[in-house]
Amino acid sequence: MTMKRWIGAASVALMAFAVSPARAADKVVLMLNWYVYGEHAPFYYGKAKGIYAAEGIDLEIQEGRGSAATTQAVAAKTADFGYVDVPTMMRAAIKGAPVIATGVLLQTSPMSAMGFVDKNIRKPEDIKGKTVAITPADSMTQIWPLFLKKTGLKESDFTTVAGDGQTKLNAVINGQADLLLGYVMDQSMKIKDATGKDVYPIKFADYGINMVSSGIIANSDYVKANADLVRRFMSATTKAVEAAEKEPKAAAQSILDANPKGGKIDTLTQGFELTIPLYRTVETKGKRPFQVTDQNMTDSVNLMVEYGGLDAKAKENPKAFYTNDYLPKSGT
Fold it and tell me: Which residues form the SsuA/THI5-like domain (predicted)?
């Protein structure tokens, strides 16, 4: 080959390299615990701001129909990650579901029994004789028996009606139920959207249920096989939460940009602002999101075993339910 031909061939090769497409982003499906509400703002904000794309992730966010159902989807690998109530995930994991939490975001429980302020239901004793609306398989229904045991209530003390998420809301809105089980930043905002009226939440956390709540979960085998992707996903999600904390209204708006029927900007913002204080405990006050402590998780497992029907063998190894190994280090 002459020098001239060699230079020409090299130039073609370099041009081909220069115009070759970059590696395609990894497609990732995140299934939420429920229909979209303010708590979910960081995921939408992270996607809208390109935070996931910067980590090489093409994120698809899917609404869920309860933490138990989302956990099943992750266990079956029909969703790559789930955002669920972690104690609900524990119930599935102890029975053999191959799932693990890769980050715990809400480290204080947002669960409550709530009714209109004018019904004057302010403490557990006031629930007696009332009608409570629940949704089978959602996270509140999983933990409700624990609340009853902690407060001395019996299921015979009140009437229960069951239905899906919207039916539960309608039951309270239309007066067919006095209370519903809901998150302080979710169902309370939906009721306010529909009626303009405030509700009063009887918070589970105020009655000794000081356990972790929502977090990211994945299939255990998926985590082992995709360690780098899991690490990138948790890095992006951590950054998304931190960015959303600084711009609550913009984060809430990203929900509506993706889903115009996802609510109203004022209550989505308010709901997200009610969520932010749940991200950290006294022990994790100075840490980045998701950095749950071993003690918090151990206490949560112990509470679930003592009051929530979790198999006692869970106490042997609380660390089997979660890992912080895929979270970004400080400042990264």
Answer: 39-251
Tokens linked to 13: 């090769």
Encode pLDDT of 288-299 as tens digits: 999 999 999 999
Tell me the pLDDT tens digit for each residue of 240-288. Answer: 999 999 999 999 999 999 999 999 999 999 999 999 999 999 999 999 9
Of 207, 241, 274, the one marking the end of a domain is: 207
Residue with tokens 């869970």: 314
Residue with tokens 């009140």: 158
Residue 261 CB coordination number (10 Å) = 6
Residue 328 lies in a domain: no
Range of the domain at 131: 111-207
Q: Compute the distance between CA of residue 267 and CA of residue 283 in angstroms, rounded to an integer.
A: 30
Overall domain count for the chain: 2
Residue keyed to tokens 């950054």: 239
* Domain co-membership, 175 together with 263: no
Q: Are 139 and 181 in contact (CB under 8 A)?
A: no
